[in-house]
Amino acid sequence: MKARKKRRIHIFGKTTLIKKLLAFYLVIVVVSFYFMLAVGQTFIYDQVLEETAASLSGAADRLIRTTIANETYTAKTLQKLRPSLDVAAKASNCQLLIIEEGGDIILDTENEVQKPYYNVLSHGQSKFLHQDVTHDFTLGGYLGTTCLCITKPLHHSDKFHGYLIFAHSNSFITERSNFYYNILLTVYYIVIGLLLLTYIGLFFFCFIPLKKLRAGSKDFAIGRDNPPIIIRSHDEYGEMAETLNVLGQELSKFDEYQRKFLSSISHDFRSPLTSIHGYLQAFRDGLIPPEEANHYYDILIAETDRLTKLTNQIIDLNSYDKDNILLDIQPFDIHATIHKVTDALDGRAIRKDVRFHVELATEEPLIVKGDADKIHQVLFNLAENALKFSDEGALITIRTSIKKDKVFISVRDTGIGIPKDELNSIWDRFYKSDLSRGKDKSGTGLGLSICKEIMMAHKEMIDVISTEGAGSTFTIRLPLQSV
Predict the structure, then answer these.
(1) Using one digit for the tens of pLDDT, what is the confidence trace for 165-217?
(2) How many CB atoms lie within 10 A of CB 136?
């Protein structure tokens, strides 16, 4: 079975969208063409036959009411109606006959009836006289061709009892049905042609660009030069090509990103480890005076705390990357959280002569929905960064505002700011701008990355507005708890 499946795949090749659409198009053409041949012509013929029968029946009724019914005729005097019946026969494209009740044809618009009369009863054709409509009838060969016959009784007087016959040749019906069928065929060919043009248009405007996208993205790989996909259009395919080209460029730079990542993390680990190693070496060699030992012990503890913080942040960030952040979404007071953050940083702010200024949207508690601990971590990181990059005597403003059903919390500093070309990079791991390196000696470059991951887990935004040399404003958004 497995070998058979492999052979089938090899024979028919890979199934693609263009092949599926082509197969669908061919099925439509074949089925519709079969329907046209097997059903269409017969259907049209039946419709024309029915319409003709109804039209001739109406003409016969009108002829009886206007020409025959108003007079009293006998079999002989009915011959006077021949001119009127000839006109009616030409108008209806029919052969008109009048047959008396005994079965004799006493008037025929196509032939001069002479004695002895042709008797339909003697030829076994009386049955049709009692039928309103008779199909494919020759009157025992008298009509010369198959006809559609409409029979109307003439019992309007005591002197004559008979039947008026409208005989319409089947050839005229066939000719008319063929005319309509040819029109239908023409419309069918036009529709098939339009479908073909549509398929060709789809091929050039959709399938060829899609094939380029597929071929180009199929060769994308990490760490290699991924050539751009060239699609010269401004539609969805062009936009998709641009998106894939950006992805290809990012994949091409993956090795560079990896090198930067390893360089950053090794640098952040190496610096405290080097300090720890140097001070321990000095203690072992007896280079540290006993009276200064506590000072260097404090340095060693600070460096180990730095390593612990870096390790914990890396573990947290890796767990966030797996998209499995377990959030404890509960209503909580965002104003209380802000006060906890400022209280925790107040001692460092006093030592640096920096003040926190809190502007709250309301004096009452402001209840939002979110994970209180993780939002505390976000605000702490933002406020700590603002404190790091602020000069002495600066003011850090934390503000809350309400817009519709959302609460916005902003942290604004008047520090060094962020260069415009680096705004999109500050969320990357271990990223530190050139301006921040002199201000932040102990930072890991992971704080903003963690903030963004937490807000993404909340499905809410975090944004920054910054001017180099004038400061930065970071803003997060949380849903307002409905009353």
Answers:
(1) 999 999 999 999 999 989 988 888 898 888 888 888 877 777 777 777 766 66
(2) 10
CB atoms within 10 A of CB 203: 14
Please state, in angstroms and rounded to a whole number, the distance separating the CA atoms of residues 454 and 459. 9
Mean pLDDT of the chain: 80
271-291 pLDDT, tens digit per residue, is 678 778 888 888 888 888 888
Residue 369 backbone class (left: φ over 0; alpha: ψ -120 to 50; beta: rest): beta
Burial 305-329 (b: 16+ CB within 10 A, else e): ebbeebeebbebeeebeeeebeeee
Find, among 126, 162, 167, the residue nearest to 145 by Cα: 167
In 3D space, the residue among 425, 436, 452 whose CA is nearest the CA of residue 385 turns out to be 436
> What burial class does residue 468 get, using C-beta atoms within 10 Å of its C-beta: 0-12 exposed, 13-18 middle, 19+ buried?
middle
The token pair at 442 is 């102990």
Contact status, residue 151 vs residue 131, Cβ threshold 8 Å: yes
Answer whether 415's CB lies under 8 Å from 396's CB.
no
Is the CA virtual torsion 375, 381, 383, 384 positive or negative? positive
**Range of weakest confidence among 201-210, 242-251, 366-375:** 242-251
pTM: 0.46
Residue 124: phi and psi, rounded to 5, are 70, 30
Q: Residue 2: count other Cβ atoms within 10 Å of its Cβ.
A: 6
CA separation for the pair 261, 94 (Å, rounded): 98
DSSP state, residue 146:
-
Token digits of residue 360: 């709250």
What confidence tens digit (pLDDT) does each residue in 350-364 have? 889 999 999 999 989
Question: Which residue type sits at 281?
Answer: Q
- Residue 361 is given by DSSP the state S
For residue 318 the two structure tokens come to: 């890796």
> Can you tell me the mean pLDDT for 24-38?
84
Distance, CA of 452 to CA of 460 (rounded, Å): 9
